[in-house]
């Protein structure tokens, strides 16, 4: 909160501002001079390393590559960070104790001393001057914490906090908060200057684009506590819309990497609900100097090779998401071994005899093989062994048992050559492949298109109506499961993958060392080197299935099946889980909460709540709260941090056919009123229609289905057909709450006759 301003007798506000900007400019110039030296150093290292190719030994190549890669990364970081590099300053009282383990004391020697004894600058990365003194402190370092944590109630040593706004190399402005105005702090014997109206409000008022910005210069106290919380077990964060959960989660990823890079080298996975939210948030981590170690994935794209392209109806989601699917899939996987062309008899000749296993015998063998929980594809060797045993018993049938050691040894030798002979026998081998086929998850899913088959696997788990809905949702799939899938299908595929196991892979080709050398020779330009480095990291990330830390955004929407899927990637991970039950579009939040609980197992949990809404002005938050009261009675809405004086507009059309024209007119009006983006949110089945309504209005305007709006925000939003959104499913009111909380400046609610608007155009749901 902005503190009262101290006055400076002789100077005008403007000249004080200019002078203070000049002071910060001088510091920034110093920082850039140092950064330039560092850049030159990184470039030199790159050059030097790339010239080492002549050294010729494998060791020299390895060393050269390591240097190229390290210097390249350093260079990327430096050039990335060149924008808006330095953003904060704190002026501190003298500490009561010296630093311990590099962490300065946060308590003052004398709380009533107005003298500023130390000044620290905070930026995106730490920069030391040539004498190793700190020119800029990394925002994640312990010494930077007071920049975020100090409040007038608990100022610690901070007398003045300054946010510095810069573009490229120019300081544009400063915004100060005086934490102890009662003391009238002094700097070098002069009263300290205080400029501006508070940095937070200036930030919140800025126009939004289609990508999220980092909040590194204005993280608030309660958010900072979460970002820096120790990552043991699971960190659970709840908070209403706009409280910064997504922003905090991403900054926490950057913080954890800074804090313990080695520990998190195993990678951090951020699970997001939609691809739209992934692309919206993707730029935040690079802006914080972190990207390589963090994978941000939509929940539907977590399974390698699967891109969720379809949406399921809420009724189908309810079935596919439920833990009841586990038993069904287990049965389906086993049943998939039996296909129309599965052989019903095995007939081979060995040792001069024809040996046969009939359908009954084969069925018994399969039952024995399936006993236990080993993944099916890994059971093929066991199936082979059981077949050989059974054939051997057939061969021995009627023969006398061996009587002495010599006969027993002879029999053993015969058995070995019997096994050897059949293991090479084409007939036996093609029988084995047909009788115990290696299955893919898609193949098993494909078998469930058949309602009769599905109904057999679903006995006791699903009702007849549920079986029909499920089978219908897969009718478009081909016989081997080929075709577009939904995010919920992806979780089923993942479950199947576990049930089936990875079929043994073809061995990778031996690499000719000469080929490697040619590859190195080709790496000539800086761009090549960086690209190769990035490709290698990308490949490593793709292969990764066990992360060191997993962050789940919009966790309230994960179904039990999705929790199982994410859990498989986090067996040894610590967690950060952020969400808001009042925004859940999953029909049974209690079942999902239980699934989360099971996934986390015995891991210790720490809970945090975020309470301030930084997105919606109070006027919009008030309208949303009316739906919250119905959607999640008893839930407290977060407190909006600002008001704009602009109340939401309610517009109603008398006939449904007029909805399109009215929506277009409203979007046009809002485009003229705000500088940034305008989103129109409609029920899921109207999103194509809505896209036509706003066709040609430019890329500042976007049409979204209700579920696609999750986590996103726009300068202005039109929520059309609110009762349509609320009626989409049993979770519809919560989805409407999400839709109503997307705007940073303006909101229009557009109703049709079915919304039963009153004379002021306010739909029944919001009256
Ligand atoms: N400390 C802050 N300083 C500046 N902006 C902030 C701060 N905290 C949050 N914001 C802004 O508020 C908006 C909402 O943040 P975010 O999307 O992280 O909230 P959320 O809790 O995830 O919301 P939802 O639950 O609706 O998805 C974003 O524009 C974010 O940049």
From TrEMBL:
The keyword Hydrolase is annotated on this UniProt entry: yes
Keyword annotations: ATP-binding, Helicase, Hydrolase, Nucleotide-binding
Pfam families: UvrD-helicase, UvrD_C_2
Binding-site residues, ATP: 239-246
InterPro entries reported in the protein's UniProt record: DNA_helicase_UvrD/REP (IPR000212), P-loop_NTPase (IPR027417), UvrD-like_ATP-bd (IPR014016), UvrD-like_helicase_C (IPR027785)
Keyword rRNA processing recorded: no
Lineage: superkingdom: Bacteria
PANTHER family (UniProt xref): DNA 3'-5' HELICASE, UVRD / RECB / PCRA DNA HELICASE FAMILY MEMBER
Record's protein name: HelD family protein
Source lineage: Bacteria, Bacillati, Actinomycetota, Actinomycetes, Kitasatosporales
């Amino acid at each position: 909160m902005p503190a009262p301003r101290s006055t400076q007798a002789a100077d005008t506000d403007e000249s004080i501002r200019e002078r203070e900007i000049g002071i910060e400019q001088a510091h920034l110039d110093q920082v850039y001079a140092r950064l330039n030296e560092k850049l030159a150093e990184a470039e030199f290292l790159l050059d030097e390393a790339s010239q080492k190719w002549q050294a010729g030994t494998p060791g020299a190549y390895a060393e050269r590559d390591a240097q190229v890669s390290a210097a390249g990364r350093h260079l990327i970081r430096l050039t990335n960070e060149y924008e808006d590099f330095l953003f904060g300053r704190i002026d501190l009282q003298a500490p009561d104790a010296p630093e311990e383990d590099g962490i300065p004391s946060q308590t003052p020697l004398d709380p009533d001393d107005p003298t500023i004894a130390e000044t620290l600058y905070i930026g995106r990365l730490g920069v030391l001057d040539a004498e190793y003194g700190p020119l800029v402190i990394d925002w994640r370092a312990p010494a930077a914490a007071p920049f975020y944590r100090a409040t007038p109630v608990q100022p610690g040593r901070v007398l003045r906090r300054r946010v510095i706004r810069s573009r490229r190399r120019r300081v544009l402005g400063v915004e100060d908060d005086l934490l102890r105005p009662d003391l009238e702090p002094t700097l070098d014997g002069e009263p300290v200057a205080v400029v501006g109206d508070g940095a937070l409000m200036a930030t919140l008022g800025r126009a939004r684009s289609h990508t999220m910005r980092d909040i590194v210069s204005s993280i608030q106290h309660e958010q900072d506590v979460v970002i820096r919380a120790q990552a043991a077990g699971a960190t659970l964060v709840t908070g209403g819309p706009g409280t910064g959960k997504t922003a905090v989660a991403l900054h926490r990823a950057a913080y954890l990497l800074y804090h313990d890079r080695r520990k998190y080298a195993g990678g951090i996975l951020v699970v997001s609900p939609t691809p739209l939210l992934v692309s919206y948030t993707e730029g935040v981590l690079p802006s914080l100097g972190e990207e390589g170690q963090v994978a941000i994935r939509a929940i539907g794209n977590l399974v390698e090779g699967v891109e969720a392209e379809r949406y399921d109806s809420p009724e189908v989601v309810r079935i596919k998401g439920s833990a009841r699917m586990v038993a069904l899939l287990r049965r389906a996987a086993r049943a998939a071994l039996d296909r129309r062309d599965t052989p019903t008899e095995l007939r081979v000749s060995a040792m001069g005899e024809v040996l046969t296993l009939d359908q009954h015998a084969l069925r018994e063998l399969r039952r024995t093989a399936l006993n236990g929980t080993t993944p099916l594809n890994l059971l093929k060797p066991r199936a082979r062994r059981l077949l050989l045993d059974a054939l051997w018993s057939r061969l021995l049938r009627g023969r006398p048992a061996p009587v002495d050691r010599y006969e027993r040894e002879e029999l053993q030798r015969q058995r070995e050559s019997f096994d050897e002979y059949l293991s090479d026998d084409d007939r036996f081998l093609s029988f084995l492949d047909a009788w115990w086929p290696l299955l893919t998850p898609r193949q098993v899913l494909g078998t469930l298109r058949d309602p009769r088959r599905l109904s057999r696997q679903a006995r006791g788990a699903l009702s007849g109506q549920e079986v029909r809905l499920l089978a219908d949702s897969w009718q478009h799939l081909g016989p081997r499961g080929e075709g577009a899938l939904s995010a919920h299908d992806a979780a089923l595929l993942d479950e199947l993958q576990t049930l089936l196991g990875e079929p043994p892979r073809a061995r990778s080709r031996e690499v000719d060392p000469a080929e490697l050398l040619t590859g190195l020779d080709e790496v000539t330009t800086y761009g090549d080197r960086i690209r190769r480095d990035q490709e290698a990291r990308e490949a490593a990330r793709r292969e990764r299935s066990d992360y060191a830390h997993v962050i789940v955004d919009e966790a309230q929407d994960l179904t039990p099946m999705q929790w199982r899927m994410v859990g498989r990637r986090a067996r040894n991970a610590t967690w950060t889980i952020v969400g808001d039950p009042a925004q859940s579009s999953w029909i049974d939040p209690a079942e999902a909460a239980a699934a989360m609980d099971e996934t986390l197992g015995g891991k210790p949990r720490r809970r945090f709540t975020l309470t301030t809404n930084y997105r919606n002005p109070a006027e919009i938050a008030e309208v949303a709260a009316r739906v919250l009261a119905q959607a999640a009675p008893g839930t407290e809405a977060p407190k909006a941090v600002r008001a704009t004086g602009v109340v939401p507009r309610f517009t109603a059309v008398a006939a449904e056919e007029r909805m399109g024209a009215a929506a277009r007119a409203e979007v046009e009006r809002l485009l003229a009123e705000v500088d940034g983006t305008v989103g129109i949110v409609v029920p899921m089945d109207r999103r194509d229609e809505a896209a036509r309504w706003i066709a040609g209005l430019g890329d500042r305007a976007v049409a979204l289905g209700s579920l696609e709006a999750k986590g996103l925000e726009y300068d202005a939003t039109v929520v059309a057909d609110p009762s349509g959104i609320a009626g989409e499913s049993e979770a519809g009111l919560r989805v409407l709450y999400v839709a109503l909380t997307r705007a940073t400046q303006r909101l229009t609610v557009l109703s049709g006759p079915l919304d039963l608007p009153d004379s002021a155009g306010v739909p029944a749901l919001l009256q």
